[in-house]
Amino acid sequence: MKNKVMEVFLKIIAVPAIVSLVLYIMYLLAPAEAPKIYGIMAAYAFTPAGHLVILGGPALGITFWQAVLSITFMDSVVSLFIILNFDLLRKAPFIGPRINSSVEKARNWLEKWKWLAPLEFAGIIIFVAIPFPGTGALIGTLIARLLGMSGMLSFAAVSIGGFLISIMFALPAYGIARIF
User: Fold this and answer.
1) CB under 8 Å to 92, separation ≥6 — which residues?
2) What domain range is 102 assigned to?
3) For the chain, what is the largest distance between any 2 Cα atoms, rounded to a whole number of angstroms?
4) How many domains, in total, are found in the chain?
5) pLDDT, tens digit, 9 for 90 and up, residues 61-100
6) Higher-confidence position of 42 and 102
7) What are the pLDDT digits (tens) for 29-38?
8) How many whole angstroms separate alpha carbon 146 and alpha carbon 132?
9) Distance CA 118, CA 87 (A)
10) Which pTM value belongs to this model?
11) Measuring CA to CA, which residue among 172, 174, 145 is closest to residue 157?
């Protein structure tokens, strides 16, 4: 019982600990830009704007790569949290039975369409990289896990997709900023 409690505690604490460490390292590497980067990350996390916040990067004075990598990091963090806590979510009241039902439906669907299994990884990348509401790291990770992808593959696919969409939003933002 003690080990289970510790495991749950570590799963819940691991991601915030990683985020704190990365934010601290970011501050050590770029103390002048760190508050601006934190601002864009917070706007991404706590507003419905999503990847549109990257468009504000040039106005904030952060570099192309700072904008892209900070938002990609946020997508990766979301994915990691879902992956580490997927089993907990499946046991949670109210949402757990829905997730379990969806897992079963996904398994049945994959059983019918076995030939699509090799395309799962690329499909998750594309899904996360599509700039529409309802796509992104959270739903992409859930779908990957529902499809039975391993945690590592889910994380990699979502992180790559998050990187691609960040690039898609940053290219015009930083290209336009250079024109003016």
Assistant:
1) none
2) 2-179
3) 62
4) 1
5) 999 999 999 999 999 998 998 888 888 888 888 888 887 7
6) 42
7) 989 999 999 9
8) 20
9) 24
10) 0.82
11) 145
